[in-house]
Amino acid sequence: MRLSEVKSFVEDYFRANLRSRHRETNNINARATYFKLIRENTNLALNEIGRSVGVNHATVINSLKKFDMYHKDSASVRECYEDALIHFKINTGVKTQDLEDFKLSKPIEKAVKILSEMTELEVIEFLPRIELYHKSNINKKQRQEQWQQQKQQQA
């Protein structure tokens, strides 16, 4: 899997631009997820990782240090990292048994089990449906979050 594919996946999931200089929480979480995923699954140097989104290696180091906090506090960061990790492993040909080292949410565990029982061709045919389902869930979650924020503002 190329950096551009991982970058595109994370940007689509968070609806963020990884090259953006804005310090909005969504952008910060997206960059942290991207850096963690690339760092743990490739042999790229920090300079190369940072250069791919227009930052220096120190920014990558800082973000990686804070990733655990983001991962612990944000359900969207956890879900995105798990989804991106599975997407990464499937597209790089790593067998799903290798994912057992990662603590996955119940729906993700179920998806991994189903995917591990499918042939490669079945997985390739199935991925567009997963992405469509995932996008519809994102929209639902965003509507729920907006409604909760409006409710809190009114209180």
Description:
- The model is unreliable at 95-102 (pLDDT under 50).
- The chain has helices at residues 3-14, 25-41, 46-51, 57-73, 75-91, 106-116, 120-154.
- It is built from seven helices and no strands.
- The longest helix has 35 residues, at 120-154.
- It has one domain (3-117): Chromosomal Replication Initiator Protein Dnaa, Chain: A (Orthogonal Bundle).
- It starts with a helix and ends with a helix.
- With 155 residues, it is mainly alpha-helical.
- Helix 2 (25-41) packs across helix 4 and helix 2 runs parallel beside helix 5.
Give a quick precis of the structure.
With about 160 residues, this protein is an all-alpha fold.
Query: Strand count, sense and closure of the main sheet?
Result: none
Structural class: mainly alpha
**Would you identify the CATH architecture?**
Orthogonal Bundle
> CATH superfamily, please?
DnaA protein, C-terminal DNA-binding domain
Strand runs, count: 0
- Total count of domains: 1
What's the topology here?
Elements: H1 3-14, H2 25-41, H3 46-51, H4 57-73, H5 75-91, H6 106-116, H7 120-154
Helix pairs in contact: 1-2, 1-5, 2-4, 2-5, 4-5
